Predict the structure.
Amino acid sequence: MDDHRDLTSEEARRRTHPCPLCQSPTFHMERYPRSVCADCAARATDSTGRTITGYNTSLGGGFQAVFTDTQQECDEVTRSNRCWIDGHPCGINEARFGGVVVEALPPSS
């Protein structure tokens, strides 16, 4: 029996949530309910507006943010785990089982 099948719209809906910034569907993980879509994450910046990218520092974990244009470390974001997307405050950090997650922060943060 072939278990590779297209998701029904109901199954897809349960596995995605609207990006809190642009409302596009994004992959849903219970641990990261405010995660943003890949398009929004690609626009993450430091407090001065320079675009940043987050990376794992090793296979064992760790997080580092770098300026996307120069690949130099962005100490501010690496230390604070705070970034901005279109002026909205967000958190950026290593995800539990690898990778990096960007989440929109609640308005009171």
